[in-house]
Amino acid sequence: MKAAVLFVKALEAEGVEYIFGIPGEENLDLLDALKDSSIKLILTRHEQAAGFMAATYGRLTGKAGVCLSTLGPGATNLVTAAAYAQLGAMPMLMVTGQKPVRSSKQGHFQIVDIVDMMHPLTKTTHQIVSARNIPTRVREAFRQAENERPGATHLELPEDIAREHTDAPLIRKSLFRRPDADVISVKMAVEMIEDASCPLILVGAGGNRKRTSKSLTKFIEKTGIPFFTTQMGKGVIDERDPRFLGCAALSAEDFLHRAIDVADLIINVGHDVVEKPPFFMKGDKPSVIHINYLTAAVDPVYHPQLGVIGDIANSLARIANQIEPKSSWDFARVMEVKAHLDNHLLEGVDDPRFPVYPQRLVADIRKVMPEDGIITLDNGVYKIWFSRNYPAYQSNTVLLDNALATMGAGLPSAIAAKTVYPERKVMAICGDGGFMMNSQELETAVRLKLDLIILILRDDAYGMIKWKQRNMGFDDFGLDYGNPDFVLYARSYGAHGHRIECADCLLQVITKCFETPGVHLIEVPIDYSENDRILNHEIKERSHLI
């Protein structure tokens, strides 16, 4: 068969459902092969957005999402998405085209060494130089993308190779089970936890990757040990649990850090190197148990005394089976701190001021989102407010990027989430700056007939950098801009446009949008004037008084 057909069949054998992207003339054989495939092509308006969608698909399913571009500028547009997937541990395969490699009549027109460019951004990158290599290259790309730690992979398919004919057989996906931790490390973990006076559990990004929620929930229910999360660990455990101490949205000196200071043992579940731990190890204090698929990379602030290495869910289940809760554990101080934090999180949730106050915004969205509803956050200062103030009830219902922390991913991620879970409520929450970086994907959402809400937080500036600028004592300079009329902008794409004109209107408008089919864009003027006072000063001052 033609190599392009074999390539598509290899993707089908991997269970690929969608390819996100923009084909070019170098991909036309592949595009033709997709025509009769079970795989659905989702045409996007920018390759970067296609990469964000593929990465989000991988994040939600554990299976590598696939995106497609042509050579040259199409492939270079995938760079940010490659870094997004690689740093965020999201399995993704990028497929790019290329001019013929055995003969060329166009010199270096559009020629960039994409394989070399992708080396520092991927787990593996290859140019396919023979049709016979397709089955092994595709299988290996998926194996690498999906294995711990997941990430981005890349294959370049030149147009002359795509046109070759071959009888190379497919390589079927192999079955494997992740190894379990050894008996001695589990026993040592049990002893360390039982001997501690105030153990705490930290849930990191790895906990969200492989559905560890059930085992970890049982572990917490049996032991009663309080827990906290990183930003990308939100939702692994229902955060309505009375033992939830909060999310480490700020680097230091939040109420949560006062609780961490009391702990003599941190049980770190699913630590990911991209998120710095919200505690610093000084010598051997606190003691740390590293429960993960891979051993810990040692650095000055993180050098755990014990690694329980293997499938996380299995490790937690085995520790839970052997452990006996101890009356000597003392969580009184920890729960005292939690009470102060919970009270602080209630402040401002009913504030009537307009533009809308961040605490009111977060509280109202939590009221209207169902338990399995998904919010996708673009990158901005609101990410801190949502990480800290928005309780997640299920795994992967708060999709934020605390790895590359790129702008422009909020809307594409929401499109991917709605594609994977069409029956669930999905809302993209974007700053006006991040939204405009991939706003053209409104057309994609409308064309796909998605029921989707995009919330635009309008402050006419790069608010995150303004917050940092003020905190560092610099003058207010260089970060303000103008915006289009977002209501008319949405309507020009065939979406519904709405503008919030009072704080009390927000909940009502969102509820109505969820009840009305189609793509809805809601412009929400936001008041960030208190960011510096609350996040940089008030929290630190009040937490030190506890």
Helix content: 25-40%
CATH topology of the largest domain: Rossmann fold
What's the alpha carbon Rg, rounded to whole Å?
24 Å
Total DSSP E strands: 18
Compute the number of structural domains: 3
Distance between the first and last residues' Cα: 71 Å
Secondary structure layout:
Blueprint lengths: L2 H11 L4 E4 L6 H7 L5 E4 L3 H15 L3 E5 L2 H5 L2 H10 L3 E7 L15 H5 L5 E4 L6 H13 L5 E7 H4 L20 H13 L3 E5 L1 H5 L3 H11 L3 E3 L14 E4 L7 H8 L2 E5 L17 E6 L13 E4 L2 H11 L9 H15 L11 H11 L5 E4 L4 H8 L8 E2 L10 H11 L5 E6 H6 L3 H7 L4 E7 L4 H9 L14 H7 L3 E4 L5 H11 L3 E7 L5 H13 L3
Parallel strand pairs: 1-2, 1-3, 3-4, 4-6, 5-6, 7-8, 7-10, 8-9, 10-11, 11-12, 13-14, 13-15, 15-16, 16-18, 17-18
Helix pairs in contact: 1-2, 1-7, 3-5, 3-17, 9-13, 11-13, 12-14, 15-16, 15-22
Protein name: Acetolactate synthase large subunit
InterPro entries: DHS-like_NAD/FAD-binding_dom, THDP-binding, Thiamin_PyroP_enz_cen_dom, Thiamin_PyroP_enz_TPP-bd_dom, TPP-bd_CS, TPP_enz, TPP_enzyme_TPP-bd
Family: Belongs to the TPP enzyme family.
